[in-house]
Amino acid sequence: MIIYLDGEFLPKEEAKVSVFDHGLLYGDGVFEGIRAYNGRVFRLHEHLDRLYDSAKTIDLDIGMTKEEMAEATLETLRRNDHRDAYIRLVVTRGVGDLGLDPLKCSKPTVFIISAPWGAMYGDLYEKGLKAITVSIRRNAAEALPPNVKSLNYLNNIMAKIEANYKGGDEAIFFDTNGYVAEGSGDNIFVVKNGTIFTPPTMNNLRGITRMVLLEIAEELGIPVKEQNLGFFDLYTADEVLVTGTAAEVAPVTLIDGRKIGTGKPGPVIKQMTAAFSSKTSSEGTEIFK
Ligand code: PMP
């Protein structure tokens, strides 16, 4: 496996970062997870835009243009001969001292990993996921906007731990106002009487897959409403689904023990999944030109 690290392409064993890197010491950095399907990188530019917006919000100068980052990403895939992969782009504040002051970090650390990847939820795309609404709240937007895809994922990890203890495949977070926010690593959609509902992006990550699903809904003529949702909306939904780069489009058929709709993946989810896979297999930035 070849890793891109600070301008070099290195074998995995040689791709090392310092223990003084603030990404490690403080979770000070940003990242992206991107997929390549069938020799193309899906929505590369949207992911790069979000990476640079995340970095800007935390005042982190990546030190590379988006074009250079795109080329480094494509070259990492080429050097690994990957046509289908999960790509992780990471930019940390870089090496500093033991204090948290970012001014002590003179240059960012940038690395790119490409790993072979299959369907994250395996047979659950057929059976549906068991989700658990967790007691821990999504980070408040006033404290750390969930729109920033930062290296500090402890809030999400705490949610996942709670779901694991309670036997769930995924956690569903509420925000500090009691509205549905998102999953630990995905956005959430609810279908009720033929309309798709999803929370506005104040309390969740602006998922690229979420955006693709909104496009698909429009193409299929399915009405969509972005509005605040509560427990009631989850439990009484006809269908619930979660979306993410890793998760793709996955049905949720049980929430806190309540069967959702018929308890099986429903017709809207099936339509969305089919449309999503036709997009992922036919769109994107060519890796091997
Ligand atoms: N929310 C969170 C917290 C996530 O980590 C992810 C995965 N990146 C998502 C939503 C989905 O975003 P995307 O579709 O861009 O992968």
TrEMBL record:
Pathway participation: Amino-acid biosynthesis; L-leucine biosynthesis; L-leucine from 3-methyl-2-oxobutanoate: step 4/4; Amino-acid biosynthesis; L-valine biosynthesis; L-valine from pyruvate: step 4/4; Amino-acid biosynthesis; L-isoleucine biosynthesis; L-isoleucine from 2-oxobutanoate: step 4/4
Domain of life: Archaea
Leading EC class: transferase
Cofactor dependence: pyridoxal 5'-phosphate
Pfam families in UniProt: Aminotran_4
Catalytic activity: L-isoleucine + 2-oxoglutarate = (S)-3-methyl-2-oxopentanoate + L-glutamate; L-valine + 2-oxoglutarate = 3-methyl-2-oxobutanoate + L-glutamate; L-leucine + 2-oxoglutarate = 4-methyl-2-oxopentanoate + L-glutamate
Keyword field: Amino-acid biosynthesis, Aminotransferase, Branched-chain amino acid biosynthesis, Pyridoxal phosphate, Transferase
InterPro entries recorded: Aminotrans_IV, Aminotrans_IV_CS, Aminotransferase-like, B_amino_transI, BCAT-like_C, BCAT-like_N, Class-IV_PLP-Dep_Aminotrnsfr
Any GO BP annotation: L-leucine biosynthetic process
Keyword tRNA processing recorded: no
EC numbers on record: 2.6.1.42
GO MF, any single term: L-leucine-2-oxoglutarate transaminase activity
Family: Belongs to the class-IV pyridoxal-phosphate-dependent aminotransferase family.
Function: Acts on leucine, isoleucine and valine.
Name used for this protein in its record: Branched-chain-amino-acid aminotransferase
